Q: What sequence folds into this?
């Protein structure tokens, strides 16, 4: 008898018919004698409607109250899911995050889980019930309602799986698993049977939006093996786990293209200590998430100066420009160039650690396609390049073919 | 500095604009230096939508889960109300029923308040905050979410006022207060400045649907003075309190007409002990709420027999007939006559206790109007008669004129 944690996202519970479908799936597992804990998100659209209501009253509503408000979304789903299980004769009981013993810090709208005391969950499981837990939420030790921020329901599932020492954690979504590339761009992309936490992390942070990084990090930290699979069919998904020897035989696990980055270049930055620190401190203070950073010596006349480029999320571009403009007189760079027309192309694989020539093959492939490389960034298991947005998909296909065939 | 509990119903918080209006009213009181606790219902329509969702899945959903589901309605309103107060610069914090320390028994969907430990409410008030509490809900000592059933938000307000030893409890609704009669039927009806708990109870149970009886009973038991007033204007409302000497000078406080009753007569019931007990036990077991009961000797031939009439809520008429039909062979009555065409007309006033001739004046008035009296029932402070539904309003106007002028 296994203990399985299943997580269903907002689309999977988007209306009462879909909630019935979830119940039917849960019942099938239950019928095999397994203990089941189900984590659910708010029905798709509900969270947005609640946010809209709040913003009708005030553009920047208090975060404590937003948590009280948004927590109702998942609470609605747990009750409906329990009722759907009852309707097909399966004993079930719902629990809010607080009732499930999920204790967080007090950082409203993006709280971190501090610990989980799943006594009530165990009690209900031992009574033979399927336990439905509201994802995305918890409470502080003082009893304040909190929410966990984006990807919070995945985090609830992974953290509960760790606390309950579950045998399996299944993340149900609307895709079949993790692919070698986005199949909408690369028709030959294949679903992966398994992938390491680190590879998943790189892909997650690269715009393969199956899961938020924090849930994967949490799973890695606590050794929770989880499966990403579809709630629309019975296909096996992708198992995410610690890397194995056999994983290293594959050099490149996947290719991703992130079209959501923008680039800013500061031209003629005085070449003296502390300048870069000043710039990135200011960007960090403005909560702008900087991704790649590249600095080149500029061989102009006059005092020694460099060009400094970095990328950030597209929606932050204007804010970043404003921050940099504010530093102009202090730092004294010559010009600022901003562009949204870039794509960030990455190859990921734990096998890269022990294989040489991967970067060379990547650059050769791009050269053959006539794609210019704008910036390069590497890690142990990843190489990313910034290219012209217009050539991104063509480049992605070529790279997938070169490393993964077809 | 007074402590005021204000309760706003679903219509008063029906959309974000109305919630802003509530906030503006609260702010005005707060500006006078008073401590304010606000109890809110779910936005009008929300509870019904949630019930509809549940019934899409299952006609008779589990009551524990219905409580989890419905509690989200008030939780949404508390957050939005707190945000609305913030938006006009008033410090405020929301609390669910559980967070406000409202402990109930475990009878889901109609739980009773067992006790209130309003420590958190006091703490927040002492921080200078307006405290917004979700009406209609609480939790069991074991941490299960419960709801209090119909009129639950009023009960929350009255019970909180008692626990907090509030100076005033204001029940905001869409009427200006309690009237001597329904102004839609009796144009000369007047708003009452004050009314005793007992009079309010009789009026509440007589179809003057300002408040549910249980909240008034609770207020009476704990001596909570409350005011029923409108959230749409600034008019003073009706103060509900223990009766005073001056109240007794007024013989009749109000006239009500309940069109929601039906009558069943059992003809030729054998006149022997235990028959009535058997009948009303069976109706009680079927949770049919019987109101008036009248028994007359029938002077027919044969064995001694009586006619037995009673009234019940119209929606229960068919169920009641079925129960009675099931007893026919056991009890051996001759016939059953059921009708929905009745109205229950009542006059209420604590002054009746010490005034004679009230009944006579009532009957004379009805006779003068040519209204036949079908059943009569009296209590210390009330006389009710069952009349033909078609003549109910005409009779009501005449009685109002006779006892209350115009």
A:
């Amino acid at each position: 008898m296994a203990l399985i944690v299943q997580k269903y996202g907002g689309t999977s519970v988007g209306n009462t018919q879909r909630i019935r479908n979830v119940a039917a799936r849960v019942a099938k597992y239950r019928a095999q004698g397994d203990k089941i804990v189900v984590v659910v998100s708010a029905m798709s659209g509900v969270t947005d409607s609640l946010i809209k209501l709040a913003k009708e009253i005030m553009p920047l509503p208090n975060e404590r109250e937003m948590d009280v408000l948004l927590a109702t979304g998942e609470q609605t789903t747990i009750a409906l899911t329990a009722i759907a299980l009852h309707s097909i004769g399966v004993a079930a009981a719902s629990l809010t995050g607080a009732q499930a013993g999920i204790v967080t810090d007090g950082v409203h709208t993006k709280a971190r889980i501090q610990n989980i005391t799943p006594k009530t969950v165990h009690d209900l499981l031992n009574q033979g019930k399927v336990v439905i837990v509201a994802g995305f939420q918890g409470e502080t030790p003082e009893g304040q309602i909190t929410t966990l921020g984006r990807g919070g329901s995945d985090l609830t599932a992974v953290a509960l799986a760790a606390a309950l020492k579950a045998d399996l954690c299944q993340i149900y979504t609307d895709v079949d698993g993790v692919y070698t590339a986005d199949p909408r761009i690369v028709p030959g992309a294949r679903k992966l049977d398994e992938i390491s936490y680190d590879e998943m992390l790189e892909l997650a942070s690269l715009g393969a939006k199956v899961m938020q990084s924090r849930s994967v990090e949490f799973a890695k930290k606590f050794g929770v093996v989880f499966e990403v699979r579809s709630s629309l069919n019975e296909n096996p998904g992708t198992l995410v786990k610690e890397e194995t020897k056999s994983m290293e035989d594959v050099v490149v696990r996947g290719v991703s293209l992130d079209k959501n980055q923008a680039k800013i270049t500061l031209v003629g930055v005085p070449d003296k200590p502390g300048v870069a620190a000043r710039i990135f401190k200011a960007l960090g203070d403005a909560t702008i998430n900087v991704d790649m950073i590249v600095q080149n010596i500029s061989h102009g006349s006059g005092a020694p100066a460099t060009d400094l480029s970095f990328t950030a999320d597209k929606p932050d571009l204007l804010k970043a420009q404003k921050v940099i403009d504010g530093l102009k007189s202090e730092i004294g760079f010559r010009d600022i160039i901003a562009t949204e027309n870039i794509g960030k192309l990455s190859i990921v694989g734990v096998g890269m650690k022990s294989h040489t020539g991967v970067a060379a093959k990547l650059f050769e492939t791009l050269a053959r396609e006539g794609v210019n490389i704008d910036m390069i960034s590497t890690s142990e298991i990843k190489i990313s390049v910034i290219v012209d947005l217009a050539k991104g998909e063509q480049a992605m296909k070529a790279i997938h073919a070169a490393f993964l065939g077809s």
Remarks:
- Chain B is about 35% helix and 25% strand.
- The two ends of chain B are 42 Å apart (CA to CA).
- Chain B touches chain A at residues 16, 19-20, 50, 53-54, 56-58, 61-62, 64-66, 68-69, 71-72, 75-76, 78-80, 82-84, 86-87, 93-94, 96, 99, 120, 143, 145 (CB under 8 Å).
